[in-house]
Amino acid sequence: MGRLEPRHRRDGGSLARPGWQQLPGQPGALPSGVAQAGTLRGRLFESPALAEVARRHGATVPQVVLAWDVRGGDTIAIPRSSRPEHTLENAAADAIELTEEDLALISRDFPAPSHKMPLDME
Which residues, listed in sequence order, are joined to residue 121 by a DSSP beta bridge? Predict the structure, then answer.
């Protein structure tokens, strides 16, 4: 079986790899509240920033979250889905190209943590 080839960043830039992802060029795994077992507490889906980005792209907030997860091209998101139409909605997230303005807006609403934090889940 052949090696999975990661998609390259759309902007052609280099990707800084976190310490847990040691093999350059290999797809990584990223835990996402959208795909975890359990229920989100709501902050993610109630975010004005994510709602605005979704509005700009004619998308849903979960699609924007998935687009953010895979934006660099070296991460594979595997969201759960129980209905075929939900699977198609998830797949449509790949067509969303987040702009620098979108990323800045999301980063203001969800700044990088300065310490370990649990997922916002029940």
Answer: 40
Higher-scoring residue by pLDDT: 117, 34:
117
Give residue limits of the domains in the chain.
62-109
How many helices (DSSP H) and strands (DSSP E) are in the chain? Answer: 4, 0
Amino acid at 19: G
Whole-angstrom Cα distance, residue 106 to residue 104? 5
Structure tokens at 94: 């790949």
Beta bridge partners of 75: 28
Tens of pLDDT, residue by residue over 2-36, are: 444 444 445 544 444 445 444 555 555 555 545 44
CA-CA distance, 35 to 44, in Å (whole number)? 13
For the four alpha carbons of 32, 33, 34 and 36, in that order, the dihedral sign comes to positive
